[in-house]
Amino acid sequence: MKNIKIMYLLFASFMLIFSACDPIVEEEHLSDTTDVAGVKLVATQSTPGGNEITISMVSPGITGYWDYNLGLALTNEKKFIYPIPGKATFKYTGTLGSQFFSKTIDVQVDKLDHALDQDWYDLVGTNTSAGKTWVFYKDNPQTNGDGPLWWFMSPPNDPSTAMNAWWNAGICCGPSDQNGKMHFDLNGAANYNHYETLTATPTKGSFVLDVANKKLIIKNSKMLGYAAGNKDGVYTIIELTSTKMVLYLNNNEANSTGWTFVFKPQ
Q1: For 186-197, what is each residue's pLDDT tens digit?
Q2: Is the pLDDT of residue 28 over 80?
Q3: What is the CATH number assigned to the segment(s) 36-109?
Q4: Residue 49 phi/psi, 5° resolution?
Q5: How far, in Å, are 86, 127, 128, 242 from residue 132 at the CA level?
Q6: What are the domain boundaries of the chain?
Q7: Band of the pLDDT at 30, cuts 50, 70, 90?
Q8: Neighbour-count burial for 167-182, b at 16+ CB within 10 Å, e otherwise
């Protein structure tokens, strides 16, 4: 009996020791600082109807980013020169605290009174509403010994090697749209049309020119030479002047290699 009592005492002592070591947990729950309706977005133009725009999210306690159609700004305020006349819609995505949200603001651009980056004029021409048409540069004086370089396999994952032709496919096995064209304009939107041939009905889409990151993105249509393109439509700009455009894919879906596209204005 005495031994049983000692065992009970020892067991009770162990229970006290272990219970004393249990961590104290304080549960914290995220709470919203406001609701979506309470998030205030502000857009200002440096001149009435002008294309220099500042967009701001001014509600305290909110964090997020802007999609201003030309790229993403990981900040609550972004100032930029917008290239497209007409109504523009910009989207802010952020967190209220416990949930994510998106909210938009519209800006009416009536005039392009601030000059665009030169890449825009090179791509769409100085008459941005009329736009510009590009075709393959089949008579490109730059060759690899086999013939002009205008559509060819290149090393993967290295834009600096874009003009190193592994296989000059254009001289023997050009794409189905090799005699087609593509047109870019800023007539109310960033419009893009792909033509399988010079007289074909176009496949209409849109584009994003990311000047800062040297990217050209084709949406809801196809790049000229799409047989070697990717579904995401994202191309690295190697060269862009008023007379020549060189685009590069670092890992095309058809071959898992690089691929280079060379164009000239029609």
Answers
A1: 999 999 999 999
A2: no
A3: 2.60.40.10
A4: 75, 5
A5: 19, 8, 8, 10
A6: 36-109, 118-265
A7: low
A8: bbbbbeebbebbbbbb
pLDDT score at 17: 41
What does each C-alpha distance from 259 to 167, 171, 180, 193, 226 come to in angstroms? 9, 15, 19, 22, 11
pLDDT bin (cut points 50, 70, 90) of residue 14 is very low
Which helix (H) or strand (E) segment is 13 a member of? helix 2-21
Confidence of residue 33 (pLDDT cuts 50, 70, 90): confident
For 173-215, give the DSSP string: S--TTTT-EEEEE-SSS-EEEEESSTTSPPEEEEEEEETTTTE
Full-model pTM? 0.83
The 10s digit of each residue's pLDDT in 226-241 is: 999 999 999 999 999 9
Q: Which residues of 142-154 are buried (b: 16+ CB within 10 A; e: fewer)?
A: eeeeeebbbbbbb
SS3 37: helix
What is the distance between the alpha carbons of residues 76 and 106, in angstroms, rounded to a whole number?
A: 16
Residue showing tokens 């490109």: 140
Q: Taking the chain, what is the end-to-end CA distance rounded to the nearest angstrom?
A: 106
Q: Which of 29-33, 179-183, 187-191 has the lowest mean pLDDT?
A: 29-33
Q: Where are the beta strands (DSSP E) in the chain?
A: 41-45, 52-57, 63-67, 72-73, 77-81, 86-95, 100-109, 132-136, 151-154, 181-185, 191-195, 203-210, 215-219, 234-240, 245-249, 258-265
- CATH fold of 118-265: Lipocalin (2.40.128)
